[in-house]
Amino acid sequence: MSHTFKFPHLKAVPLEKAYRLITHGPTVLVSAQDQQHTDVMAAAWACALEFQPAKVTVVLDKSTKTRDIIERSGFFALQVPTRKQLKMVHAVGNMSLYAAPEKLRQSGVELFQFESYDHIPVVQGCSAWLLCKLIPEPHNQQQHDLFIGEVIAAYADDRVFRDGHWYFHEVSDDWKSIHHVAGGHFYTIGEPVSVNDKV
Amino acid sequence: MSHTFKFPHLKAVPLEKAYRLITHGPTVLVSAQDQQHTDVMAAAWACALEFQPAKVTVVLDKSTKTRDIIERSGFFALQVPTRKQLKMVHAVGNMSLYAAPEKLRQSGVELFQFESYDHIPVVQGCSAWLLCKLIPEPHNQQQHDLFIGEVIAAYADDRVFRDGHWYFHEVSDDWKSIHHVAGGHFYTIGEPVSVNDKV
């Protein structure tokens, strides 16, 4: 079934604007699957790398099963969770699939797939998704735990991101992106400011 | 003159907690100097890479003079500007020292140095500073414009960061970190949320 039928607010984002989904520095969820496993983890250390072709970096510790899956499958998604998902984000960030095979169910993660990308599981209820193909770089992966992906498709929920811009300031606080500090502590994104604002 | 005399609120941050200064994803300023030039630029694509030894990544376009200086000097600082500095951040992010030799003066940047680090210029009025030694990686630099630094010293203004935690919610909005989206548009950091909060 097409995602557009089940989730009518999810709209494709042009690849050259995909960087705008994470340039403001939110903590993201990283999801991936191989033939045996599906995992989702939290990552505060994710970043845009290139406008076009759109690329991203994400730091994946060797202790995570998600990393192992991505090394095998070559695909992953970064997605921007919302304040409403805070407890789920913290839960998937603090449980390993190695130790907790029922991690996703216990964390309350619900998955779906975008049409044509059924090999990349994504998390329901986020505000934006970047579907990525791993650019294998053994040195970066081994030495720095640094993974580089080319963005092959991007989507956002048009209630909070549309026409290339976030609208966090027009929707309820539940939609705000969350920005990790340490432990269980985060900040939400705040108010829009522009260099053209009168001071 | 010691910075502690002129700026009594600036306190050293233990290196193992330096990541907390940027894990929430702020737009940063990048500063560096060589024997001829001093430059400061804005970078939204900066990220923590490792806890200990503390490391960071930052994407530096080939068009920037700051990048050229860092390749020559081997040192740079990342610093977290405040909402009060928004226009300055946007100015240094949109002028190149190549085209505008008076860029820093025109942007209103005021520099200082931390004691023992007089080869790394830093910007007054920010909330936190990470002094870095470049880890030269020709492939990452050439192929991805990606620069990796080891954090050799870190400082923060104790009015907004102390004991390993940000206090954005206890100080005026002027102190808030800014998070770039596109063009002249940013969001400030918002409110603290914790997994232990009652919903």
From TrEMBL, chains A, B:
The question of whether Flavoprotein is a record keyword is answered with yes
Q: Which domain of life is it from?
A: Bacteria
- Residue span, Flavin reductase like domain: 20-163
Instruction: Check the record and name the Pfam families matching this protein.
Output: Flavin_Reduct
The UniProt entry, under SUPFAM superfamilies, shows: FMN-binding split barrel (SSF50475)
Answer whether the UniProt record assigns the keyword Flavoprotein to this protein.
yes
Q: Which cofactor does it need?
A: FMN
Keyword tags:
Flavoprotein
Q: Which GO terms describe its molecular function?
A: FMN binding; oxidoreductase activity, acting on the CH-NH group of donors, NAD or NADP as acceptor
Family to which the UniProt record says this protein belongs: Belongs to the flavoredoxin family.
Q: What is this protein called?
A: Flavin reductase
What organism is the protein native to? Acinetobacter wanghuae
